[in-house]
Design brief:
This is M24 family metallopeptidase. The protein is built from ten helices and 16 strands. By secondary structure, it is of the alpha/beta class. Helix 1 packs antiparallel against helix 6, helix 7 packs across helix 8 and helix 9 packs antiparallel against helix 10. The termini are far apart.
Length: 395
Amino acid sequence: MNIAPGKNAVSNIPFDQARVDGLMEEAGIDVLLATSKHNTQYLLGGYKFIFFAAMDAIGHSRYLPVVIYEKGGPDHAAYIGNRMEGGEHQNNPFWTPTLHAACWGTLDAANLAVEHLQTIGKAGARIGIEPGFLPSDAYTLIRKALPDARLIDATAMLESMRAIKTDAELEKLRTASELITDSMLATIAWAGEGTTKAEMIEQLRREETNRGAHFEYCLLTLGSSHNRAASPQAWKKGEVLSIDSGGNYHGYIGDLCRMGILGEPDAELEDLLAEVETVQQAAFSKVRAGTLGGDMISHAEAVLKASKVAPYTDFFAHGMGLITHEAPFLMTNHPVTYEGTYAAKPLEKNMVLSVETTMLHPTRGFIKLEDTLAVTDTGYVMFGDRGRGWNRGGA
């Protein structure tokens, strides 16, 4: 399907055009060539093709969605997708004036992208690409077909684009967090003595799916072990459980961690979780629009350093949204490999943070809280703010 570009064809651009145009100008980009699932979803207003939601490979190639957006020229925008996406367009038309629902692999998608760039007069433009999400065969084709173009890494620009969430995005993130929290608490209450890690993870998958979330992963520990992989290890009386799950709602991530206990927590366990909570609260106290991201990090780290559990406890915070680690990037290589480029920048309203304190106690096990916060002008709003103490198993 091909709808030719034309003036005044755009009626509903699903993102802040002025902001995106400004970010493109700062990055020296004339036209975007977005090829990642998350950025094409964002630029299409939340759409993701269900057939390739859990995979990319098909035949000898892979699915490669492409959104082309020219700075200041939404009438020249295009979406290049799989042949089956013509039916999606019939039911819920894409906003882009041009649609090519015609591809089965990377090379036909790249060819159509080249043809569209030539049609709109951008064959020699500064083209923003996603190197990490542009297959080598597609990149080679584009490079050869557009020898006068300058291909620019648009990764940072696109990350900045997604850093400030809309109200609709915040609602999806809130819903994702609530569904994940409810699912984790239900799983802890369901599990009892003799329930294995593998059984708990499968139960959590069901809980999340039944609530309308898409299960992504579950990292779970029992007893004194720090191993979070699925196994036949069974829950025993008096043992702790940590359950850390990521799932999504309409593509937006919920990522939280809660603690369980089979029986009643003793005084030492109450004290250890309180130490974790103290560090979490220290971080929360510095979250508000205008505060430097690095100041929040340093304050929490200072509180942790003064704690008796510091030798085996770690603090970490990161941005989240359509993916689990996105802007604002607050810490360098801790543990995910990227630079903390936002540490010296102020937090902004509607940024979303994951804040986590993890204790690897030498005898009592893996004790952790992970929370999701949306930055406001005066502080923050927490999503999924329940079950942050010791939750009883076998209830």
